[in-house]
Amino acid sequence: MKISIIGSGYVGLVTGTCFADLGNIVICADNDPDKVKMLKKGVSPIYEPGLEEMIERNISKGRLKFTGSVKEAVTKSEVIFICVGTPSKENGEADLIGIENVSRDIAKHITSYRLIVEKSTVPVETGERVKEIIKYIRGNKVKFDVASNPEFLREGSAIQDFMKPDRVVIGAGSKKARDLLIQLYEPLNAPIVLTDIKGAEIIKHAANSLLATKISFINAISIICEKVGTDVTEVARGIGLDRRISMNFLNAGIGYGGSCFPKDVDAFIHICRKLGYNFGLLKEVRKINEFQRNIAVRKTEEMLWNLQGKTVGILGLSFKPNTDDIRSAPSIDIIKKLQEDGCKIRVYDPKAMDKARDALNNVKFCKNAYDVAKGSHCLLVLTEWNEFKELDFSKIKKSLAQPIIIDGRNLYDPEKMKTLGFRYTGIGRKL
Ligand code: NAD
């Protein structure tokens, strides 16, 4: 099939590259000329395991192309995926100007039937607006369909998630649109959920909101565990081994971040309010998450007494492991708060340092975890990268000015840390 992708970021680039790898002819468009220049050379502007190799392979087979021109993408393909960002406005509402701009651009250039697919995460009823705007610009001259096909991939395992999804959701208003998407996804052999456009839009917001709820739930439980002196990881296991609940998303920590959960929870609360429903449960989920970010700063203060003039060594900047994405990462807020309180900061992240250089000032970027420890008054773990799980702790201890570890992701065993001579605190752990 001939496919185009408008917006070649974390979702668009993975989607386009994977569809090309499945044998389709794909054109990925983006309005960032630097990104397009890199991509044309086969260089990925984002870190995602396995992605660059896949891009190179498909460029060389002639199945994957990059362009700065939406017109080229639209004219040369039958199915067009909209994958631009849908960030939050200040009031939490999803900012849909990107979706509108792309819809207008598409409308200008279609001359025969096209299927336009929303892959970006959008509030319910956005599909209606996309349809309206295209109709308004083209009148009845050109036939087209709009469909919703939300994406559930996770950064860090995006290719695997795309190629082996738990399900593919197709929200379509016509048989032709539905059949085209079913045909496109057939090689994945995944369960397909067929619904209407509004159903698909709600599925995405509801899924992310439920996952965020699980995280905030276990974080609330971690507070109780800490108060009474028991261990949240054991409690989580006791809850999660129940198959109705599952262990997934039951890791207590400094809260969720990234470019999806915070904005999607906000956007869902907002659209529900607009529709006349006050989603109080989700407001509480968001409040618990904000509280967890403050816990990292409060625990650092408890351990160091006065923060003024202390050096805090930070392990991990990306919002989760295996990605370089720092959008809405807890690390950025936490570092800024510590700086406001007078701390000096040393940091290391395996992949996110380049992106963090633009977001942080007066921070010493170090070459590894041991370098971070040098002269720091404590080590604060903010991302659960694998390489932080197996550190040489005697080396770390020798380098630190004080043997203190604040473990924001519950990576380490408190007993073991105590035996190694550290003062240790995690989130909701038995001390
Ligand atoms: P992103 O910022 O990485 O990518 C968006 C891309 O669109 C950018 O490269 C930008 O330059 C480009 N763009 C913006 N306006 C354009 C225009 N008019 N024409 C051409 N290109 C344009 O964002 P992302 O993380 O890929 O997210 C995209 C959407 O997918 C969002 O709605 C997000 O919520 C959703 N989503 C993201 C993830 C994730 O893990 N990142 C997962 C599922 C769904």
Number of helices: 17
User: What's the CATH first level of the largest domain?
Assistant: Alpha Beta
Helix-strand makeup class? alpha/beta
Rg, Å, rounded:
23 Å
Give the total of beta strands: 14
The CATH homologous superfamily name of the largest domain equals NAD(P)-binding Rossmann-like Domain
Task: Kindly report the spatial arrangement of strands forming the biggest sheet.
Answer: 3-2-1-4-5-6-7-8
The CATH topology of the largest domain corresponds to: Rossmann fold
Helix content: 40-55%
Unreliable segments of 5+ consecutive residues: none
The overall pLDDT, averaged over residues, is 97
Tell me the number of structural domains: 2
Question: What features would you describe in this structure?
Answer:
The chain has 431 residues and is of the alpha/beta class. It folds into two domains: 194 residues, NAD(P)-binding Rossmann-like Domain (Rossmann fold), CATH 3.40.50; 216 residues, Rossmann fold (3-Layer(aba) Sandwich), CATH 3.40.50.720. Helix 1 packs across helix 3, helix 11 packs antiparallel against helix 12 and helix 12 crosses helix 13. The relative contact order is 0.09. Nicotinamide-adenine-dinucleotide binds next to helix 1 and helix 5.
